[in-house]
Design goal:
This protein has 30 helices and no strands. It is mainly α. The longest helix is centred in the N-terminal third of the chain and has 18 residues, at 2-19.
Length: 543
């Protein structure tokens, strides 16, 4: 009877694995393993299922046993494959020393065997990745070698992974268009179901990190949405790990979905305990809190970011600025800019540097920062950086009493932020546009721009910017009821008659998240029914 039950669980686990029902596969294969030791191939499947649902330790243990069993049976290629994936899983868990040990063990086994197999390409990857920062040209050559081996053995996983590596190396060399083409090609393969599920998540993380490196927000957002759609077919998969969780938070934050970004950032901090990206996760939480006017929480998050090795700038300096401590803001941002030598790092500080210097009435120094940023924007192919540079230049020209020149730069910045769908920055630009128009005597346009900025800040929940704008314009908050951009989006869908489940599908979020948004809407508007919410939406021209 026990034998029959084991066989049934094993067959069910294998069948669930083929269906990509990862939790079911994990549970059935685990049950079979507890009653009778799995063979090596089944251990590989158990490890893959465990990895995909976030059960890392089970994954590591199963791969260790699979390697040993493959080696005992004399199947060197299979043993190499298990060792590679174990090293890869350990890297994802930030256990770098044991990961390097497994890669070295696999490399020694390969050399002793003398085999010409596709696993040789897999084992080229760890060393090539380490070379990307120190010798990108050499790294590119190693990745190209891995592509050649992968193509010879018709292995799409390694071919795609190696091309992603080649793209990252090309970025460091400065050949950005060619690099972007390779990364786009890789994500096409990943989201077209041409690769193994484990490889999809790995490739996404590397690709998104690359797009963030060059501040290509549209591509990062597009491929994140594409991967989310891919995940819908496998609802129990955990695709976002390590830096992916943090970048996903940043994408939501820049797109104006601050409540969702806050939840994602908190989830990242929980999942990344003692991971090298934990400091970045806390920094993103600090940014969201700062935008919302939650200053004590923002400072606590920035403090945690610093504890975990992420310098909390420019966020902390901008927090001090909005708190009214211009001296502290200037001291911290100036020191940070002076220490930053790497162009990409420096480019992300200079806009804040200029903003703070303008607040300190140091216009000449702000002009230097704006010019420095413009030079970097000209050398780095990034629309985000270009928009930030135009905005900074416009603000400086206003301070230099050149409203006409300022207006040209600010209009360009607003157009770019709008195309990039970054509502917070677009609204901030409109405030400066209003000031330029007012100085040119066009008070009607100035009023329109301030109204548009106010509406955007209300929808976002940008309390500090809204308070400043109300003080500048003397206009009270409008009828948005304090709803955030995402809450207004949900309200519109409620008003269209959609259920929470349908709204969750449209917005690519969980039904639980939609329910929370609906509850917040009811609370803020002082209503208790969907019909009342619909009436409110129509009365305030939100549909």
């Amino acid at each position: 009877m026990v034998s029959v039950m084991v066989t049934s669980a094993l067959e069910s686990g294998r069948e669930a694995y083929e269906r990509r029902a990862w939790t079911e596969a994990f549970e059935q294969l685990t049950a079979a393993d507890e009653s009778s030791q799995l063979i090596a191939a089944d251990l590989d499947q158990l490890a893959a299922a465990a990895f995909l649902i976030g059960r890392d330790q089970v994954c590591h243990d199963a791969l260790t046993r699979a390697f040993q069993e493959h080696q005992r049976q004399g199947d060197v290629p299979a043993a190499l494959r298990s060792a590679y994936y174990l090293g890869f899983a350990l890297v994802n868990a930030a256990e770098y020393a044991p990961a390097m040990g497994w890669f070295s063990r696999a490399q020694r086994l390969l050399e002793e065997s003398g085999l010409d197999c596709v696993e040789r390409a897999y084992l080229l990857i760890p060393a090539a990745i380490q070379m990307v920062d120190t010798d990108p040209a050499a790294a590119r050559g190693v990745f190209a070698q891995a592509v050649e081996i992968g193509e010879r053995f018709a292995d799409p996983d390694i071919v795609t992974l190696a091309r992603v590596g080649e793209g990252r190396a090309l970025m460091r060399i400065g050949e950005v268009p060619q690099a972007v083409a390779l990364l786009d090609e890789a994500m096409v393969a990943a989201t077209a179901d041409e690769l193994s599920p484990i490889m999809v998540g790995n490739i996404y993380c590397v690709v998104i990190e690359g797009f963030f490196e060059i501040s290509d927000l549209p591509r990062a957002r597009h491929w994140t949405a594409a991967l989310s759609r891919w995940c819908e077919t496998q609802p129990d998969v955990v695709p976002f790990r390590g830096q992916c969780l943090v970048h996903r938070t940043e994408i939501m934050q820049m797109h104006g979905s601050w409540p969702d970004a806050l939840l994602e950032g908190q989830r990242a901090c929980e999942r990344l305990f003692q991971h090298p990206m934990l400091g970045e996760a806390y920094y993103q939480l600090g940014q969201i809190r700062r935008f919302r006017g939650e200053f004590a929480e923002a400072e606590a998050a920035f403090r945690k970011a610093n504890e975990w090795g992420r310098q909390p700038q420019p966020g902390l300096a901008l927090l001090r600025l909005v708190q009214g401590d211009v001296t502290a803001a200037e001291a911290s941002i100036r020191r940070t800019v002076d220490e930053a030598s790497e162009p990409l790092v420096r480019s992300k500080l200079l806009a804040a540097d200029a903003q703070i210097l303008l607040a300190a009435r140091k216009v000449a120094e702000a002009r230097v920062a704006a010019d420095d940023l413009a030079q970097l924007a000209a050398s780095i192919d990034s629309r985000v950086l270009g928009a930030a540079s135009s905005h900074t230049l416009g603000a400086v020209l206003l301070a230099e009493d050149d409203p006409k020149g300022a207006l040209d730069a600010l209009r360009h910045a607003w157009a770019e932020w709008s195309r990039l769908e970054v509502p917070y920055e677009a609204a901030r630009v409109r405030v400066h546009i209003a000031e330029a128009c007012r100085r040119l005597g066009d008070n009607d346009t100035a009023e329109f721009e301030l109204d548009a900025a106010r509406a955007a800040f209300e929808q976002l929940g940008a309390a500090p910017e809204l308070a400043l704008l109300i003080e500048i314009s003397g206009v009270a908050a409008g009828p948005a009821g304090g709803l955030t951009a995402r809450e207004i989006e949900v309200l519109k869908l409620v008003a269209s008659g959609k259920t929470n489940r349908a709204i969750a599908t449209d917005l690519v979020v969980s039904e639980k998240t939609v329910a929370r948004h609906v509850s917040n809407i009811f609370t803020k508007l002082g209503i208790s029914s969907r019909s009342a919410a619909t009436a409110y939406a129509y009365e305030n021209d939100l549909v």
